Amino acid sequence: MFSPEIVRVLACPVCHFPLSATPGRLGCPNQHHFDLSRWGHVHLSRGRIPSGDTAAMVQARLRFLARGHFAPLADTLASIVACRPPTYIVDVGAGPGYYLASLVDRSPTSSGIAVDVSRHAARQAARVHPRIASVVADHHRLPLRDDAIDLVTCVFAPRDPSELHRVLRTTGRCLVVTPSPSHLSELRGRYGGLAIEPNKRERLLRTFAPWFELARTTQLELSLCLTPEDIADALAMGPAAFHPDRIAAPASESLQTTAAFAIFELVPRPVARAVR
Ligand SMILES: C[S@@+](CC[C@H](N)C(=O)[O-])C[C@H]1O[C@@H](n2cnc3c(N)ncnc32)[C@H](O)[C@@H]1O
Ligand SMILES: [Zn+2]
To answer: How far is the CA of 74 from the centre of ligand 2 (A)?
Structure first.
């Protein structure tokens, strides 16, 4: 929902002036207007943006997450955040908003903004929690004011460190979750899917280094027993869904596999920023 608290940190994607709300729409002093959709989200982007996850991918993700397989990851993120409850949380590439809803729900004074390029994901995120507003935007140009956000999360999604740095307060922090090289390797070995880059960690730290300092890394491993339905959804919700030719025939039996995640906690460096 676009409460006054949330609108306060939004910026016009065209001119970057602050946005304000009138019934059914958001607008800036330069007469740029953005209508709320009937699903409750708003497009805050300028020009063409990628389309992101399809409706089928979002539905597969919703079903998979609803079975609780990744709930321990949501719990781990919440325990990292608990020591310093944030006022504003932004989840970049939020998908249906599962992790953001879990964080906002455990922190009664916080408000969340789910950002995703996929309108299908944004429709789901718009109804995941009353203290979450859902926005369609590209992660390279977040429709957010400078120095406004306490916590940015980015779970298995693309990110732009300079843009994350711009929107974060100097006291803020950023949690990035990536799959570790062994993530679901039994599943990928048996049914296909995309390999995980072996030097993902080094590349991530290199791209963040000019803007952020690594405060802590947490590794999480979950032993999962996936049913054929889980396997179908796990394949259909991930990047392999864009390459159906690389996926083997549907599963007929359960599979034991390990989910392995790395959670990077990053704090902003005091660097000068380019003026917009
Ligand atoms: C692997 S999914 C993860 C979704 C969610 N974080 C979760 O774990 O449930 C990646 C998400 O990033 C979104 N995405 C892809 N490109 C994006 C971009 N340029 N800007 C913002 N979001 C993007 C996709 O639409 C998708 O919802
Ligand atoms: Zn404007």
So the answer is: 35
pTM of the model: 0.95
- What would the mean pLDDT of 52-61 be, rounded to a whole number? 96
* 89: number of Cβ within 10 Å: 26
Angle between helices 228-237 and 55-66 (to 10 degrees): 140
Question: Which ligand lies nearest the alpha carbon of 119?
Answer: 1
**Using CA atoms, how far apart are residues 132 and 136, in angstroms rounded to an integer?**
13
Q: In the predicted model, what is the mean pLDDT of residues 106-112?
A: 95
| Residue to substitute in 118, 123, 142, 154 for testing ligand 1 pocket (most ligand atoms within 8 angstroms of CB) | 118
What is the best residue among 57, 139, 175, 177 to mutate for testing ligand 1's pocket, by most ligand atoms within 8 Å of CB?
Answer: 139
Domain boundaries, the chain: 47-268
- What's residue 47's pLDDT? 87
CATH of 47-268, one of 3.40.50.150, 1.10.10.10, 3.30.710.10, 3.10.105.10: 3.40.50.150
Contacting residues for 32 by C-beta, under 8 A, at least 6 apart: 12, 13, 14, 15
**Residues 266, 74, 64, 230: is their CA dihedral positive or negative?**
positive
Chain centroid, CA 100 distance in Å: 8
Length of the chain equals 276
Q: Is the pLDDT of residue 194 over 80?
A: no
Contact 145, 80 (CB under 8 A): no
The pLDDT of residue 247: 65
Cβ 192 vs Cβ 250: under 8 Å:
no
Our answer on whether the CB atom of 124 is closer than 6 Å to any ligand 1 atom is no
114-142 tens-digit pLDDT: 999 999 999 999 999 999 999 999 999 99
